[in-house]
């Protein structure tokens, strides 16, 4: 079939042509926006799940929903080596630019922009050279005595409170979206929790929507014990069969192409319901198929090609980031957890490698920081990437 008309889109954070199986999460967010619009208190949201389940796609869709309701929005992607001051400043600057023209008192908006600028510039010491001072592109003087104390928790509470005030004045809201939230630095995590707590008590129209790996709730709880009640946690998992089928069928129907029932069976078995894999296998199968309807034989021909592409781009790129010691640790996990990549005990990994658990801690901690594994629960470890165990068993070297 014509590859130009191929509707499937496997890509990091790329929206699939049919966003299937996420109606519950979208409806929950609509309720949040509606409650805040009516002055009702509401918790911020946290999406958690493995790589490839579509957290970033869903985060972007939620942002679109907020924009469609006239909210100011900003999005950042956390990095373990970066403070949130600059990214948050840029995100809030964008949100305020969206809301500013609708505000009757431009001086008030300018004052808040000055607070944003002060917050951003506090990251560099006063005597820093010009090249080390970040200029956020805000054409107002930096405020003094507000969000510039140097204490991240104090400053973020003041900054978000002031920004929420601008939104409240025009009957709107602000949503700050944070992807890869598990990579936020500990002090910044504490500041986010404190700010969300304060904003919730004020009934301020500003929410944080985070997305991260399955251990993100534990990261938040370790920072502030009340985080369990502060956020609404939504676990994003693989698609049920009907949703996975719809993700394939709907785009194909728009191109006048059909699937034979056997083809859908084979595709679900191969992709296992993970949205990224659904798109990856669907794309290659389309290119291999000669005509409609797409058959199980087409899937059988396409599967090895799709698996090779995944081995290089999805699995291999992550494996290549690991050191020899880390790779040894992951191969031991794969041997113990099997093709499904089940969580395994860290003590069992140590026994398998003939090592003491303490000697393996550096490799395990490094893998966690690199986002390749996570602590499923105390004493347990699991892959953040679905089917990674299967990949390692097929590629022992």
Name some characteristics of this structure.
single chain, 397 residues, alpha/beta, Rossmann fold, Helicase, Ruva Protein, domain 3, Arc Repressor Mutant, subunit A, five-stranded parallel beta sheet, three-stranded antiparallel beta sheet, 16 helices, 9% strand, globular
What does this structure look like?
With 397 residues, this protein is α/β, with parallel strands linked by helices. It has three domains: 23-235, P-loop containing nucleotide triphosphate hydrolases (Rossmann fold); 241-318, Helicase, Ruva Protein, domain 3 (Orthogonal Bundle), CATH 1.10.8; 323-394, Winged helix-like DNA-binding domain superfamily/Winged helix DNA-binding domain (Arc Repressor Mutant, subunit A). The chain has 16 helices and eight strands. The protein has helices spanning 23-37, 55-68, 85-99, 106-121, 152-169, 186-202, 216-223, 227-230, 241-254, 261-271, 275-288, 296-319, 324-337, 346-353, 357-369, 388-394; strands at 44-48, 72-77, 174-179, 206-212, 231-235, 344-345, 373-374, 380-383. The strands form two sheets. The chain has a five-stranded parallel sheet with strand order 2-3-4-1-5, with helices on both faces. A three-stranded antiparallel sheet has the order 6-8-7. A hairpin with a 5-residue loop joins strand 7 (373-374) and strand 8. Helix 4 runs antiparallel to helix 5. The longest helix has 24 residues, at 296-319. The radius of gyration is 23 Å and the shape is globular. The chain starts with 22 loop residues before the first helix and ends with a helix. The mean pLDDT is 91. This is AAA ATPase domain-containing protein. It holds the Pfam family AAA_16. Residues 168-281 form the Cytochrome c domain. One of its GO terms (molecular function) is heme binding. Keywords: Heme, Iron, Metal-binding.
């Amino acid at each position: 079939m014509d590859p130009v008309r191929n509707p499937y889109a496997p890509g990091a954070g790329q929206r699939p042509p049919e966003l299937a199986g996420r109606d519950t999460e979208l409806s929950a967010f609509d309720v949040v926006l509606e409650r805040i619009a009516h002055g009702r208190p509401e918790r911020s949201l946290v999406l958690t799940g493995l790589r490839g389940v579509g957290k970033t796609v869903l985060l972007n869709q939620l942002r679109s929903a907020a924009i469609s309701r006239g909210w100011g929005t900003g999005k950042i992607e956390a990095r373990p080596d970066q403070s949130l001051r600059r990214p948050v400043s840029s995100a809030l600057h964008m949100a305020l630019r969206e809301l500013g023209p609708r505000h009757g008192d431009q001086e008030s908006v300018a004052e808040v922009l000055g607070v944003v600028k002060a917050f951003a510039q506090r990251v560099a010491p006063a005597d820093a050279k010009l090249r080390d001072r970040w200029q956020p592109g805000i054409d107002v003087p930096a405020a003094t005595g507000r969000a510039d104390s140097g204490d991240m928790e104090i400053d973020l509470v003041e900054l978000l409170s002031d920004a929420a005030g601008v939104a409240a004045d025009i009957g709107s809201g602000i949503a700050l979206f944070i992807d890869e939230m598990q990579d936020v630095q500990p002090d910044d995590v504490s500041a986010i929790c404190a700010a969300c707590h304060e904003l919730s008590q004020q009934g301020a129209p500003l929410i944080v929507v985070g997305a991260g790996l399955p251990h993100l709730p534990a990261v938040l709880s370790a920072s502030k014990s009340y985080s369990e009640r502060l956020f609404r946690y939504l676990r994003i998992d693989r698609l049920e069969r009907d949703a996975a089928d719809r993700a394939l069928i709907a785009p194909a129907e728009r191109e006048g192409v059909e699937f034979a029932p056997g083809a859908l069976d084979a595709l679900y078995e191969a992709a296992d319901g993970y949205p990224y894999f659904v798109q990856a296998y669907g794309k290659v199968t389309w290119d291999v198929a000669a005509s409609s309807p797409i058959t199980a034989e087409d899937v059988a021909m396409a599967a090895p090609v799709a698996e090779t592409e995944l081995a290089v781009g999805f699995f291999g790129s992550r494996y290549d980031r690991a050191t020899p010691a880390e790779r040894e640790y992951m191969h031991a996990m794969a041997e113990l957890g099997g093709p499904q990549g089940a969580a395994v005990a860290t003590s069992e990994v140590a026994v398998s490698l003939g090592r003491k658990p303490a000697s393996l801690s550096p490799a395990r901690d490094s893998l966690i920081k690199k986002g390749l594994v996570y602590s499923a629960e105390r004493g347990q470890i699991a892959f953040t990437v679905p089917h990674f165990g299967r990949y390692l068993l097929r590629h022992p070297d």
